[in-house]
Amino acid sequence: MDQQRATDDRWRAASAGYMWMEKISYRSKAGDLDIPAFVFLPLGPAAPGGRPALVWVHEDIRGHLYEHYIPYIREATARGYIVIAPEYRGSIGYGRAFYDAIDYGGREVDDVATAVDVLRKRYPQVDCQRIGVIGWSHGGMIALLAVFRNPSMFRAAAALVPVSNLIDRLERKGVEKQLALIDPANRFGGPPQDRPDIYKERSPLFQVDKLRIPLLVHIARNDMDVNIEEDLPLVEALRSQKADLAVTKVYDHPIGGHTFDRRVSKSTWEPENTPEQVDSWKRVWHFFERPLASAPTLSH
After folding, report:
1. Domain-embedded: residue 172
2. Is residue 38 part of a domain?
3. What is the pLDDT of residues 120-179, one digit of tens each?
4. How many domains does the chain have?
5. pLDDT (tens digit, 9 = 90+) per residue, 227-276?
6. Which of 2, 38, 104, 108 is deepest in the core (most CB within 10 A)?
7. Which residues are 35's β-sheet partners?
8. Is 96 a member of any domain?
9. CA dihedral defined by 255, 252, 283, 127, rounded to 10 degrees?
10. Paired residues of 86 in beta bridges
11. Continuous H helices in 202-274
C-alpha cells in the first residue's frame, strides 16, 4: 500500500499544470466492495452543456493505473474529456482482501461499469450522454464485456489488444497455470471442458452479437501476450457481423508488440512516438471525436 501511495503521488505531480486529479472510492454495484478510482478533470471552466467522459480501464490481471498512461490521460483532458480510472477488484496496492477478491470477467466488470453511475452522481460537469470506455489487454476485455452487458450505458468503446477468448487462451498458455492466475478462488468452477458456458460468458468473442455502439479494436500480429490467433477471430467476427459499428485495425509488426501503443520514457513520461503508436492514438482520438467530443482543443 505504501507503493500505491507513491504511485498516487507521482500521478498528482504529473497532473500539475495539465489537469486536476482526485482519488476517490465508490461502492461497486456488485454490492460487496469499495473500488478506488482516479478522476482527472480538464483545467478551466466547463464547456457549455457539459464535458464528455472516458472510463479508463488499466491493463493486467494484477495491475493498476500505471504511470505510462500519464501522457495519454493528459492528452484526453486536454481534448476536454473527464477521465475516471477504476482500480477494479484484484488490482495491486489495496491490500490482501481486495487482491483476493479477483473475479476475472465477472464482478470486476461491475466495478468498472459502476464508474458511470459515479460520474452521473458526483460530477455535474459530465455530459451523461457522452460517456465512452477504453481499455487495454485485460482491461480491453473488461471494456468489451461492460459494453456487451450494458448496451445503453456507453456511447462508444475502444479495446486495444484485448483478451478475447478464454477457452483458446487457456489451451495455448496452459490450463493449470492460467487458472492459478485468473481464478485462484475457483469462481469459474473448473476448467473450460467442465464449464464451457462460464468461459464463453466471460469471453468477448462469443458476445459480438450484443454490440450496439461504435467500437474500435486494434491488435498486433507480433503480440506475445494476446496472440494474434486469439484476437484475429474477434476482428473477423466484428468485420462480418458488425461492420456498421466496428472499426478495426491489425498492426503487422509494431515495436513493442503487445504494449506498442503505451511505451513511454520513464524519465520524462513522453511517448516513444513510433509510427504505429502515433497512428494508433490518432485513430483512437478520431474515433471518439464524433460520438463523444465537442470541438477538440489542442493538447499540451
Report:
1. no
2. yes
3. 999 999 999 999 999 999 999 999 999 999 999 999 999 999 999 999 999 999 999 999
4. 1
5. 999 999 999 999 999 999 999 999 999 999 999 999 999 899 999 999 99
6. 108
7. 26
8. yes
9. -80
10. 37
11. 228-241
In a domain, 287, yes or no: yes
Helix (H, G, I), strand (E, B) or coil at 273: coil
Q: How far apart are CA 163 and CA 169, in angstroms?
A: 8
Which residue carries 490467433 as its cell?
229
Residue with the three cell numbers 482526485: 22
What angle do the packed helices 138-149 and 107-122 form, to 10 degrees? Answer: 70
Amino acid at 168: D
pTM of the predicted model, to two decimals? 0.96
Work out the average pLDDT over 41-61: 92
Domain that holds residue 282: 2-165+203-292
Own/partner long-range contacts of 2-9 (Cβ < 8 Å, ≥24 apart): 3/93, 4/64, 4/92, 4/93, 4/94, 7/64, 7/65, 7/67, 7/93
Residues forming a β-bridge with 131 = 53
**pLDDT at position 296 over 70:** no
